[in-house]
Amino acid sequence: MIKFLKRFFKVIMSRGFIISFLLLLQLLFFFYVAWELGRRGIYFYFFFNILGVIFAVSILNRSFNPAYKISWLLVVLIIPFAGPIFYLLFGKRYFSKKKIEKMRQLHLDTLNQFKKNYREYEMDNPFIKKLSHYITRVTGMSGWEETDSKLLTPGEEFFEVLLEELHKAEKYIFLEYFILEEGYMWNKILGILEEKVKQGVDVRLLYDDFGNINRVGYNFKREMIKKGIKTINFNPYRPRLSMFINYRDHRKITVIDGNVGFVGGINLADEYINKKVKFGYWKDASIILKGSAVWNLTFLFLEMWQSSSEEVFDYEKYYPTKTYPTNGFVQPFGDGPIDNHQSIEMAYMHIINNAKNYVYITTPYLIIDNEISTALRLAALSGVDVRIMMPHIPDKKVIYMISQSYYPELMKAGVKIYEYLPGFLHSKMIVADDEVALIGTANLDFRSFYLHFEVSCLLYKTSSVLEMREDAIECLEEAKVVTKEDIQKISIFKKLLVAVLRAFSPLM
Is 335 among the residues known to form the active site? Predict the structure, then answer.
């Protein structure tokens, strides 16, 4: 009983609970006002219904994904009293005009610096050349040779290599993470960061405030700054209703001296290295880059830092100083909600559409739009071996149920779906034909493609592409294929519930 009371008190006194409670009160107030007005007379009733229709027409004319539109249409038409208010608060895809203009102008200004190192490489594959050109055109980020890349999986291997490289830092360390949590992993990293600060190394930490709402203490940022670690919490979680809370920095980036970079699905918390067991064995993956392509990761970090502060950088100070003669082509790039390009989703579609022999995908979530679904089904029906690997033990049961609802339509077209039996599969990769791959932070869901700031890395004919293929095959050996019988075992109640939830899944 005492333990329960302690836990209960800890929860209700946490920053996440207090702010969420205040947000809920505000939301209930808006709904109450709308309801009271609506029930006081036929005129108010018609007013709100007409308002719902106006909002519905406005939504239909907006240029975003049809599935996202349908979800909001249901909200404003089914709950006419409160739906329009809810849409005004949370339905906009963009930041405030001031914020978006700052980010866009910053992107244009910094791209001028970026172009100084731009090179266009000749490639023997016209499809990959088109994909690389598309990425450069919409994100400004070119591809690079002279870059060594190596897959790091599971999280334990990533952690070991990360510590080794952090010890070597001489000039600067940049860390940008969606989640970090005090524990064995973070304490080990923090010890090195403190040591490096004393040596005069410029150490900067950028973390998503919402992602860490119940993971770090109230004074975490202040404590880091006291230790000499320059720290920014992206998009501070405050007790006011705003669409801005929907945008999150989901990236996981480390840059060391501009010559070494890490990117992938692994955050800085103990479950990612299996020091804390939450959902069975946690299987994850990242990639280490050494050489010219690290500049793209440095650029993304500096751009995000500037967008969240008033600091201005001399970018030339951060260019890579080492190259690594290797075969292949590496192109890290970022994506986010400041435009309508969805470059990571388009890269996935391009790889799927142009695959000849096989496509292997690992993802923790599978909430896809019609475009990705069509590409996967078309590839499978065309004779391509399409395999998707999902976790067997989920971290979010509702999201897992919705993900499973996409299984039947994909399986009917010949897509093979597997569940990783040891536990939770969190790596986010696609590899095709032993030639091309993507690895990064984006899940196969609406939130990653449309609302999060993400980062991915295109790899072509590098040794790491083959490493990713081998890792996928190893995952398949520890996975079970999902069958029609498995789908039939799902209860009618769950199927009905998921049918409703799926209609609103783009908003989750």
Answer: no
